[in-house]
Amino acid sequence: MWPRVLLAIGLAMPLPLSAVVNQSFQVSATITPGCLIVGGGANYGTLAYGSYSALATSTVTAALTGGVTLQCTPGVALSMSVDGGLYSSTGRNLQLNSGSARVAYQLFRDAAFSQSLGINQSVSVTYSDASNISLPIYGRVVLPGNQPGGTYSDTLQVQLTW
To answer: What are phi and psi of 150, to 5 degrees?
Structure first.
């Protein structure tokens, strides 16, 4: 009887298995190119021409300041377009806040005022530092010297694509 018991106990013990102690697995991630708008909230900046006499007839220029900066994945093709504003019946216009008088103005995409930024025209935004991109918007207005005094303004919508 004794040998049978030993045989039964031997069958109940697990047999040693060969274990894999060295194996590999893959790790991957997909990084999607794009851009991030930093700061400024809903305000993309200000194009302020300053204060002048109602009789002034000079040409005044300004650059977009303040507002947002952008950060893009290096190499991303960034584009922008700017609409005609609230008073764009025949072009972009500043309108007297307490009246209907208007003063025409133009936008440009370079500080030399040689590259016009047309209404809803999509233009490339070039940059050298992908982590600090400013929108290249410059304005020029010829003061007519015959408009009522007061504050003139307009609101523009900027569309960014990448």
So the answer is: 145, -175
Asked whether residue 45 is domain-assigned, the answer is yes
CATH number at residue 96: 2.60.40.1090
Task: Please identify which residue in the block is written with the tokens 């290249």.
Answer: 136
Distance CA 70, CA 37 (A): 5
Nearest C-alpha neighbor of 107 from the set 30, 34, 36, 45:
45
Return the SS3 of 97.
coil
Per the CB < 8 A criterion, the answer to whether 82 and 120 are in contact is: yes
Q: Which domain holds residue 116?
A: 34-162
Q: Considering the entire predicted model, what is its pTM?
A: 0.80
Span 65-76, pLDDT tens digits: 988 899 999 999
pLDDT, tens digit, for every residue of 4-60?
A: 544 455 555 666 777 888 999 999 999 899 999 998 777 889 999 999 999 999 999
Rounded CA gap, 80 and 159, in Å? 5
Instruction: Please check whether residue 116 is in contact with residue 106, taking contact to mean a CB–CB distance below 8 angstroms.
Output: yes
Cα-Cα-Cα-Cα dihedral of 119, 123, 126, 131, to 10°? 70
The per-residue b/e assignment along 99-127, b for 16 or more CB within 10 angstroms, e otherwise, is: eebbbebbbbbeeeeeeebeeeeebebeb
